[in-house]
Design goal:
By secondary structure, the chain is α/β, with parallel strands linked by helices. It has 10 helices and 7 strands. The protein has one domain: 3-Layer(aba) Sandwich (Rossmann fold), CATH 3.40.50.1820. The mean pLDDT is about 95. Bound molecules: D-malate (MLT).
Length: about 260
């Protein structure tokens, strides 16, 4: 599996591995602002889910029937290959769904958890229907067919009004993904199981993050998750939407650093 990695300088106190799981329909490069956590002693690894960041790939056969367990299994295989026995796992949105799958499949790899702009519930029938339509749009027009619609969902009002650089960065991240990767992720999301019952079994240090303007997984969803995960902390990133790590990387990194320093 492809991945981005930032290693801590030899002079830093070595803190272990921090695994960053990306959202849909962007890719691991959305985590570039968080690679700086390496300076604080973390070995930062950002896996690229199947087929992402490979826009040129041409489909052979039907759309892939990828599952969240496939993504989680790929991440676990990667950790084994890198000789990482446990890690703080940080998933944003779809990345959070993969983190839940990792907890179900191999919880011993997860030493700490960050759930950012995500939700434990499975898709509603209406949401699954929306995914089916999007698979069709992507089959016909590739990533470009969904870019505008997704940018409007992913970014908060403040970012869309005042940060054209972030809007263009996210557009670039979306367009760098092939149709197969996007269709596979849509299939994985629409077939994912509900993880609500899993929350009460989480007994590791956990941080929940939400952008104050997140319309996809609003702060109320994050507050409910926090109530269900014993001892978890909540950080609201002001003036950010769904991609809070990119929209307000300063505030996101400050919350992440505080959590890593004091809770893990
Ligand atoms: C994401 O950001 O990963 C997606 O918007 C999540 C979703 O559509 O459920």
């Amino acid at each position: 599996m492809a991945y981005l990695e930032a290693k801590p300088p030899a002079s830093a106190r070595q803190r272990g591995a921090l695994v960053l799981l990306h959202a849909f329909p962007v890719n691991a490069r959305m985590w570039e602002p968080q690679l700086a956590m390496a300076e604080r002693g973390w070995r930062v690894v950002a896996p690229q889910f199947r087929g992402f960041d490979s826009a040129g790939q041409v489909r052979v056969g039907p759309a892939p029937a990828t599952t969240m367990d496939d993504y989680a299994g790929d991440v676990i295989d990667l950790l084994d290959a890198l000789h990482v026995h446990d890690a703080v796992v940080c998933g944003l949105s779809m990345g959070g769904y993969v983190a839940f799958a990792m907890l179900r499949l191999a919880a011993r790899y997860v030493q700490g958890l960050v759930l950012a702009d995500t939700r434990p519930q499975a898709d509603t029938p209406e949401a699954a229907e929306g995914r089916r339509k999007m698979i069709q749009q992507v089959a016909e027009g590739g990533a470009a067919a969904i870019a505008d619609e997704m940018i409007a969902r992913l970014l908060g009002d403040t970012t869309r009004r005042t940060r054209p650089d972030v809007v263009e960065r996210v557009r670039g991240l979306i367009l760098s993904n092939g149709a197969d990767a996007i269709a596979g992720a849509l299939h994985a999301m629409m077939t994912r199981p509900d993880s609500t019952d899993l929350l009460a079994s989480i007994h590791i240090p956990t941080l929940i993050v939400a952008g104050s303007e997140d319309a996809v997984t609003p702060p109320a969803v994050a507050e409910e998750m926090q109530r269900k995960i014993a001892g978890s902390e909540l950080a609201i990133v002001e003036s950010a939407g769904h991609l809070s790590n990119l929209e307000r990387s300063d505030a996101f990194n400050a919350s992440l650093a505080r959590f890593l320093d004091h809770r893990v």
